[in-house]
Amino acid sequence: MAWDTEGTKRKIREAAVREFAQFGPDGTTVERIAGAAGVNKERVYNYFGNKRSLFTLVLRDELMKVAQAVPIESFATEDVGDYAGRAYDYHRQHPELTRLLRWEGLVLDDQIPDEELRRRHYEYKSRAMSDGQAHGAITTSIDAGHLFFLVLSLAGWWSAAPQVARMLTGAPTEEEHARRRASVVEAARRLARAP
């Protein structure tokens, strides 16, 4: 019987996303990840190296997924509120991403893997904001990078602190999610509105 290498790698990555999101890179073990994937830990080491390498790969994969799912070219032609709403939807469906980013900040702090590559990606996002500013579509009173970070915060913080969201706005029913999303869209538009 042939071994399904790609299927096994996929199972390990999926298990690693769940484990790292819940326990962080220092709070979980390769044994736990292997067990959740239904493989032995030697497979994890053989395919991905050490735990830190696997965490880096998992986070990189999750960031690529969000970049593909919520693309942006220019806020000169695209609505900031629509983008924020799509980002809210993504984070609601994939709360692991926000948790992984929080763990990265807590554990790795200033030793971020792929930092230069990610910085270029974020500069691309910031340029979408700068382009909107250059065309008079959005405010120039807030730096483009700051403005983009604020929009991402509006969209993502709901999944980063769900307990606070619940205490402030109530249980996360479908109706409440629709209200939250509408608030994110409106707040992003107001924040970015050109005078």
Number of alpha- plus pi-helical segments:
10
Helix content: over 70%
Q: Could you give the count of β-strands?
A: 0
Radius of gyration: 19 Å
Low-confidence stretches: none
Integer average pLDDT: 93
What share of residues are in beta strands? under 5%
Q: From the helix content, strand content and strand pairing, which structural class follows? A: mainly alpha
Shape: globular
Question: How can the largest sheet be summarized?
Answer: none
The span between the termini is 67 Å
**Assembly state here?**
single chain
Order of helices and strands: HHHHHHHHHH
Describe how the helices and strands are arranged.
Elements: H1 5-27, H2 30-37, H3 41-48, H4 51-69, H5 80-93, H6 95-108, H7 115-134, H8 144-160, H9 162-169, H10 174-192
Helix pairs in contact: 1-2, 1-4, 1-6, 2-3, 5-6, 5-8, 5-10, 6-8, 7-8, 8-10
